Structure formats: C-alpha cells, structure tokens
Amino acid sequence: MKKLRLNLPVAVLLLVLLFVAGVRIRLLAIPLERDEGEFAYGGQLMLQGIPPYQLFYNMKFPGIYAAYAVLIKMFGQSDSGIHFGFLLVNLACIWLLYRLARRFLDAPGAVAAAASYALLSMSPVLLGLAAHATHFVVAAALAGLLLLLRGEDSGKGVMFFCSGLLLGMACLMKQPGAMFGLFGFCLLVVRGAREREQWRVHCRKIVLYLMGLAAPLALTVVILWQAGVFKRFWFWAVVYAKVHATSFGWSDAQLQLSNFFHSVPFAADGLFWITAGLGLASLAVVKGEQRGKFWLAAFLIFSIMAVSLSGYFSRHYFVMLLPALCLLAGHAVSAAMQWARAGNRNKTWMALPIGLFVLMWMQVVFHHREIFFVLSPNQACKKLYPPNPFVECRQIGLYLRAHSAPGDRIAVLGSEPEVFFYAQRHSATGYIYMYDFFLDHPYAKEMQNEMITQIEKTRPEYMVLVKTPFSWDVRPDYLRVTNTPVIIWARKFVQDFYAPAGLAVIKPDPEYYWGGDALSHMPSDGSFISIFKRK
C-alpha cells in the first residue's frame, strides 16, 4: 500500500499525458496556421541547404526554423508530422514542469501544476493546438532551469554550462526567451551575494553559465556569417525588430490585453488564473522555505517580462507565462492541503482541495469538448480561426505542387507562408508577410518596392492573391496617407502577365474552382483566394 501511495502522483500524471496525447493525435491533421507555415517553410529550406533570411525574411531568431527542420526530418513534410513532433515537445514540457515543481512543492501540488500546464497549453484560448515558437521556448527554458537547480545542489560546473546552453537556446527560439536566461543569471548573482564567503566558487559558476548562455548565440552568428546572410539577419532580427516593436503604442497594448482577457472563459480557463492568484497570495501566508518562495515569485516576474518584451500581446505569447502560473496553482493546492493537515481535520477536508482541482480541470475539458472530441481537424481549424484561410491554403498548396515543376517559383500576395510549405516550392520574393508594408515605419515603401523588383525579376510561374483583411492587416489611417505601391502594382502586373487558374472561396465549407471555372465564379465581395498562371 505504501508503494502504491508513493506511485499514485506519477500514475495520475501519466493519465494526464495520455489524455493530452489522445486529443492531439486526433487533431494531428489540423492545417498549419501562419506562424507554423513560416517555421515549416524555413525548416524545409534548411533541409535543402538554404539558410534562413536568404529566400525569406522575418524578425524571429533562427532557432525555431532549426527545430522545425528536425521535426520535418524525423516525422515527414506534412502538418501531421509537424504536429506529432510538437506533441512530443509538449509532453516533455509537462514532465519537465512536474520535475521542476517537485523541487518546491509536495507530490499533489506538483501533479496539479503539471496537469494545469497540460490542459492550458492545449487550450484553444491560447491557440494551443498550433506549434508556436513559445512552446519551444518553454521546453528549453524548463530544461535549463531544472539543470540550474541541480547544479546548485551538486556544484558541478558542467551543470551550469549546460543550463546556460539550454537557456541560450530558449532565446534562439524567440527573442523574449532571453528573459529566462536573465532570470537564471539573477538567481546565481543573488545566491552569490548571500554567500559572500564563497565568492570565488560563485564567480566560477556564473562564468560557466554565461559561457553556456552565449554559446548558441555565438555559434548562430558564425554560421549565418559563413552562409552570407548575417547582414540580412541583423537587419530583420535586430534593427527592424526594434522598429516593429516600437510601432505599437501603449493604447494598442491595452486593447490587445483587454481582448485577451475577454477571450478567457471565466467558468473554464479563468479558474486556473484565479487559482494561480490564490497561490501567489499563499506565498506570503503559508510557512515554507524562503528560497522556494523567492524562486516562484521571481519566476513569475521574469515570465511576465518575457510576455511583455515586444509590447505586442498575441494569445500564444501567454504560453511563456503558463509555467509560472501553473506552479502557483500547484502551490495553492499544496497550501490548501497543508492548512487541512495543520488543523488535524479529517480526511474529507484533506481531499477537498484535490477534489476541487479535479472538478475545475474537468470543467475546462467540458468547455472545450467540441474541439477536443467532436470536430474534425478542418472543422476545428475553422472554429479556431474563423476569418482565416488555413484550410484553403493547404488545398491551394497541394494544387500548386501538382501543377508546377520543382524548380518553379510562386508568389503569394498575402501573409500565408504555409502555401510554400505545402507546395514545396520556393517563394519568388523574400517577403512572405505583407504586414510590414502597412505599419507606419521608415522602411515600408522601400520594402514594397523591393518586393515588386524581386517578383518582376523572377517572373513566378504562379501568383496567389489572398483577399482577406487578416492576411494583410491594412490599417485605414495608414492607407490614407500612403500610395501603397504594392497594391497598385499587383493589379496591373497580374492583369498583364497572368491568367486565372484557380479560386478558393473562404467560408465554413470552402468552395474550389479550377481552370476556366475560376473566372466565371469570381465573387464580387467576400473573402477568397485567386490563383493565376503565367501566360
């Protein structure tokens, strides 16, 4: 019986992992969304020996493209293969969080923390079915922080170096991941300040940690320099990334935050946020090791900094906050059980916190039951991203692959890089997103003119025109004060050199027309995607 009791938390965690695996496997074939399409296209090019920033431009660090290249190599060039690899990453995050939680919480609290992360990281509220870069940041960060704690226990220098290495990789996945590397550095400095008599030992640990932290970044710079794309990487990932981040004011940030918290269902996912708040309050009330309380509170602060670093609050950015919130939720469960034990209350009182947590967990599952258990992958995609053409883009990509030669180029006027991945064809321009053209910054017109020049020089075999506002993100106030040369040019260029070849009407049940039917079914309004073949 004692052995059974000791293994019960692990058994419960395994059941949670099986549930997550079951839901994600059922939805493996859900179409790629924009970010996934970009990462998949970048990984696809890397496997062809083409470095990031050569045939496409973006502000992200290249670690996520390398991660996708590994997934594609291992599990195949398909949305199902990518999502299966992402399933393994997600399961690893859940297990790592459990191991990290056991450093500060009892077994029930650690299971509660891991189970919370398992459910929330899969939640439609955070777009958790998509393999966003933030999930890969969390995987590297949790592994690095766990090694850092083990290094502090063992004193082994290799632990500090490897911890820095993993936290440096978190930054490579997405720039805000640097906050977790800074968190680890601050932990080492604080501990060194408390134990001044061993300052030489602590200095050695810090140096090894910083060496590990810098190694992935330094290696990336060397590789990109050797590949001849460092200049473009520096502009997009550093110079322009700073310009882009400052183009959104505080009013935009407030609106995004407001929209996010309004999207959180109070009677479902919101219960976990409330529980995390109770866990934060319990840090000040419940007796316990001060080091653990400091660690959890500081982890929350740096996680908030990671989410806020860009000044832009997409829903999936909050994935980087989940580990801290879930640890606090686990602390709330542990604190409630400690309160029940302290008063010599009966077993019913001790079981109450666990029972309430299970009910809360089941309420979230019930709230999202339609997506988790009922809808097909395509239907789930339409429900999650109703105005977006991700289902249609997969069909268009497959059509282009079947009707073009491997060496043909295609151009997509719209922000749908997943088309290139499905088509397995190269873009005629490095601009795979249109968003940057319509922000108020000094590079906007220069970027539009460069894209026009690249497409005219390449003369792609196919042009894909996406007519949906979410693929362009054109701001009316900016549209009035610019000539938007790319929009004016596109109409004339397509009319002069291309003929209709296909049409996808974007709706809950998409309609497709090919060849001559495309011209006769062209809608006068609404959202659609037109395919044109070079005359």
Task: Please give a structural write-up.
- This protein has 535 residues and is mostly helical.
- The protein has helices at residues 2-26, 34-47, 63-75, 79-101, 107-120, 133-154, 157-173, 178-194, 199-227, 230-246, 250-263, 269-285, 290-308, 322-342, 347-367, 369-374, 377-384, 390-402, 418-423, 444-458, 476-480, 485-497, 516-520; strands spanning 409-413, 426-427, 462-467, 498-505, 511-514, 528-534.
- It has a 6-stranded mixed beta sheet.
- Strand 4 (498-505) and strand 5 (511-514) form a beta hairpin.
- Helix 20 runs parallel beside helix 22 (485-497).
- Residues 1-5 and 477-482 have low confidence and may be disordered.
How many beta-strand segments? 6
Unreliable parts: 1-5, 477-482
The assigned structural class equals mainly alpha
* Rg over CA atoms: 25 Å
Number of helices: 23
How far apart lie the N and C ends? Answer: 77 Å
Spatial order of the strands forming the largest sheet: 2-1-3-6-4-5
Bin the strand percentage. 5-15%
